[in-house]
Amino acid sequence: MSYTVLAVVGVVAAVVLDRWVLRTRLLGRRAFWAAYAIVFAFQLATNGWLTGRGIVTYNSGAILGPRVAYAPVEDLLFGFSLVLQTQAWWVWWGRRLTPRAVGPGEPAPGRARPPGAGS
């Protein structure tokens, strides 16, 4: 399987995870795109430096060919999927590990009502 196919599969998997599996819907949030723009800039700088100096090389038969800052476009797809999946899992786990707000007269999660408290 080529790097191109793996990169596209990674993006599709990340979008499915965000939208339908975890239901975090990060792709619809401005905050995600602002954070991704920052990551993207550093990804281009890092990839450009590594590939431009020949530290990392790619088999031309495994990539499409177009490059951005010396790095193949597949690296951008792969990086996007990694960032989206990481943030989706972060939000999903955060929702489950953060105690929910307790309403008036409601016991805190995991605690019994004190004796004489209303029903």
N→C terminal distance = 61 Å
How many strands, which pairing sense, and closed or not: the largest β-sheet?
2 strands, antiparallel
Order of helices and strands: HHEEH
- Rounded to the nearest angstrom, the radius of gyration is 22 Å
How many DSSP E strands?
A: 2
Mean pLDDT: 89
Q: Name the poorly predicted regions.
A: none
Beta-strand residue percentage:
under 5%
Helix content: 55-70%
Overall number of domains: 1
Number of helices, counting only DSSP H or I runs of 4 residues or more: 3
Kindly name the structural category.
mainly alpha
Which term fits the overall shape?
elongated
Structural account:
The protein has 119 residues and is mainly alpha-helical. It has one domain (3-92). 56% of the residues lie in helices and 3% in strands. It is built from 3 helices and 2 strands. The protein has helices at residues 3-21, 30-52, 73-97; strands spanning 67-68, 71-72. The chain has a two-stranded antiparallel sheet with strand order 1-2. Strand 1 (67-68) and strand 2 form a beta hairpin. The termini are far apart. The mean pLDDT is 89.
